[in-house]
Structures are given as structure tokens and as C-alpha cells.
Write a structure and sequence with these properties.
InterPro entries: Aldolase_TIM, OxRdtase_FMN_N, YqjM-like. With 366 residues, the protein is α/β, with parallel strands linked by helices. The protein has one domain: Alpha-Beta Barrel (TIM Barrel). β1 and β2 form a beta hairpin. It is globular and about 60 Å long. The two termini are 26 Å apart. Bound molecules: flavin mononucleotide.
Length: 366
């Protein structure tokens, strides 16, 4: 039988009630990395709104891995305790809670978008030293070269610390009930900085060949898989392309090559996004489903399950992606900021029979 947007999906021993995922979206609302009422309402509303998987925003595995001082973190027990009731609420609504484990590398120590998004120098009160595959800072188009924040190239010991930080964060996440761990290796953040030849200028075993550049990501996925229970899935979010065809860069062929390597390391699904490594990127067309062809290429070339994301807003479009076997999961970002109950409304439009929260039953269309 053909799968639809509302057919449950089972990965390992974990069943998602449908194929809609709340895409990870930074809220820039945490203090010291701690979840608060904003996160409870944001994630809780999408769980009550019928999403299959509710993914947290990029959540720093260590303090210097946060994009901004207001990003979430999970580097201590206090952080785990702050988000635990939210995880419980998400589960109580029948949604599967996922955590995006993240390290921003040289794109850390930045101001939130509402404050201009620029780099915060390490010597300013809110700033800190960033680390990367390279010691070249992110070349912001609108910041003078001399004002770019320094970054420090990780040495072998530093690399091991990053791997440990991901694994420890995953252990904490499991302990408080998260059911999916997503390793963030997209959007020009640390793991992407190692994978892409645009940012990786290393000469050690983490630089040079495809195998060397992807080594850290592989080791992180293996370390997460080691502490993550067998029955729970691991996702990896990648940028399928750097959108830099004018130079030696990461492209879709690399992603098709990477997916089975990640599956071998313990990943169960590739969440396929794009870009973020360099401001020169040329996004070809940000219209409806603009990144779907990358997800499709990976799924077709490898049989590894994929999530598609990017400009997906229409229920019939999302449903067709699953029916036509172009994607296993469909992630919605901005559309679910506009419509927290998008899955419930989509089910109505598509004629699927789904449970509404008991409190909202009088709002059902039937
Ligand atoms: C406000 C906002 C914050 C975002 N934060 C993250 C993030 O924390 N991690 C991530 O992988 N992607 C992040 N993204 C990207 C989204 O997850 C999604 O991939 C992108 O918005 C394209 O999907 P859409 O067209 O459905 O919004 C963010 C996007 C937005 C709009």
C-alpha cells in the first residue's frame, strides 16, 4: 500500500505517528543555554498541533558551540532538568521528541538576528573564543576583515573533546526521554566546517581527502550511536551542497557518497538541507521544495531514509513527497511558525483521520 503523509513511520523501534517533522529552529530565547517557558510553548504547541516529530532548535553540546548567547544548550544536568518537562509534554501529546545536537564552530559567538547577527568578539562580555577545522574566521560579507572574530583550529585533543561533548550530550538527552538524536552537520557549523573543502585546510588525518574530511562527523555519529539506545533513531542533518559551484566545495555527489557511510556509522535518516558554509553561496531557487531534489538524490542513490525540507507549505505537496517516495519524512520550518497546528489542518484537507487533543475536539472540522 502507498504510504501517505499520515502513515506512521517506524525507524528502529520508534514509531512516529505521521511523517511531519517540526524542523529545528533557533528561538534565541534561552539564558545560559537553559530552556524556559518560551521553549515549552513553542515546542508544546507544535506537539499539540499534531506533528509526528518535534525537533528542538540547535542545542549546544558545549557552551562555545552555541551560535548566540541565547541559544539552547545541553552541557550540564541543570540544562537537562530544564528541558525534561517539555520533553514529557511533547510525548504526552503523542509526538516524538527529538533534539538537534549542535556545535557552531567558527559560526558561534554571534549576535541573535534581532541584534544584527554579527560576530561578538571574544573579548566582549557576551562573546567567547570559537574553534573550527581552520583558523580562518567566517568571512562575513558586511564585516571588515579586521573586525572578524578570531577562531582557533582544533588540535587532536580538541577534536576528541568535541566527540566527547556530543556523546555526553546524547546520554543526557536519552536520560530525559528524547527519542531522536539529530547530529547537526549542516549550515556551515563545526561538523560541516570539517567536511567541506571550502573551510577545511588541514593537513592531518582530519583534512585533505573525502575520507579524512568526513572523519570527525563519522566519529561523532559513532560516538552518539554508542550511547544512544539501539531502539532509538539517530538523524544527521547535512547541507547537501555548499551552493558554490565556482570553487572546490561540497556538492550533491559528495552527499550521496556520505549517506551510506553515515548509515554504517549508525545514522538512520539523513535530514537534507543546504548551504551556510560561505556568504558567496548562490542559492539557485528558494521556491517550494527547493531542496527536495537533494533528498531525492540521496534516497534514490543509497536507500538511506531521508527528510526533505525547504519551502514546503502545502499539504498536497508534502503528501505527494511521501506518496511518490521522494522523502520518508517532511520537515516544515517557517510554515509551522505561521501555523502551529499545520498537521491537524493538513489531515483535514487530505481526509486523514487523526486524533485531536481532547481539549480541542470541539474545534475539529467534522
Ligand atoms: C528562525 C529559524 C531558525 C532556524 N534554526 C535552525 C536550527 O536551529 N537548526 C537547523 O538545522 N536549521 C535551522 N533553520 C532552518 C530550518 O530548519 C529549515 O531547514 C529552513 O527554514 C527551510 O525550511 P522552511 O522553508 O520550511 O522554513 C532555521 C530556520 C528559521 C526560519
Amino acid at each position: 500500500m502507498t504510504d501517505t503523509l499520515f502513515t506512521p513511520l517506524t525507524l528502529r523501534e520508534t514509531e512516529f505517528r505521521n511523517r511531519v517533522m517540526l524542523s529545528p529552529m533557533c528561538q534565541y530565547s534561552a539564558e545560559d543555554g537553559l530552556a524556559n517557558d518560551w521553549h515549552r510553548v513553542h515546542l508544546g504547541a507544535r506537539a499539540a498541533g499534531g506533528a509526528g516529530v518535534v525537533m528542538t532548535e540547535a542545542t549546544g553540546v558545549e557552551p562555545r558551540g552555541r551560535i548566540t548567547p541565547n541559544c539552547l544548550g545541553i552541557w550540564s544536568d541543570e540544562h537537562a532538568e530544564a528541558i525534561e518537562p517539555i520533553v514529557e509534554f511533547v510525548r504526552s501529546q503523542g509526538a516524538t521528541p527529538g533534539i538537534q545536537l549542535a556545535h557552531a564552530g567558527r559560526k558561534a559567538s554571534h549576535r541573535p538576528p534581532a541584534e544584527g547577527s554579527g560576530p561578538i568578539p571574544a573579548d566582549e562580555a557576551d562573546g567567547w573564543e570559537t574553534v573550527s577545522a581552520t583558523d580562518e574566521p567566517y568571512p562575513h560579507a558586511n564585516v571588515d576583515e579586521g573586525d572578524l572574530a578570531d577562531t582557533r583550529r582544533l588540535d587532536g585533543e580538541g577534536v576528541d573533546e568535541v566527540i566527547d561533548a556530543f556523546a555526553t550530550a546524547a546520554e543526557r538527552a536519552h536520560d530525559i526521554g528524547f527519542e531522536v538524536a539529530e547530529v547537526h552537520a549542516a549550515h556551515g557549523y563545526l561538523l560541516h566546517q570539517f567536511c567541506s573543502p571550502v573551510t577545511n585546510d588541514r593537513e592531518d588525518e582530519y583534512g585533505g581527502s573525502f575520507e579524512n574530511r568526513t572523519r570527525l562527523l563519522r566519529e561523532v555519529v559513532e560516538a552518539v550511536r554508542e550511547v544512544w539506545p539501539d531502539g532509538k533513531p539517530v538523524f544527521v542533518r547535512i547541507s547537501a551542497t555548499d551552493w558554490l559551484p565556482d570553487r572546490d566545495s561540497w556538492d550533491v555527489d559528495d552527499s550521496v557518497r556520505l549517506a551510506p557511510v553515515l548509515a554504517e556509522a549508525g545514522a538512520d535518516l539523513i535530514d537534507v538541507s543546504g548551504g551556510g558554509i560561505h556568504p558567496d553561496q548562490a542559492i539557485p531557487n528558494a521556491g517550494p521544495g527547493y531542496q527536495v531534489p537533494y533528498a531525492e538524490a540521496i534516497r534514490e542513490g543509497t536507500d538511506v531514509p531521508v527528510a526533505a525540507v525547504g519551502g514546503i507549505t502545502e499539504p498536497t505537496h508534502a503528501d505527494a513527497l511521501v506518496r511518490n517516495e521522494r522523502a520518508d519524512l517532511v520537515a516544515l520550518g517557517r510554515e509551522m511558525l505561521r501555523h502551529p497546528h499545520w498537521p491537524l489542518e493538513a489531515a483535514h484537507e487530505l481526509g486523514a483521520d487523526v486524533e485531536w487533543p481532547v481539549q480541542y475536539r470541539r474545534g475539529r472540522y467534522d
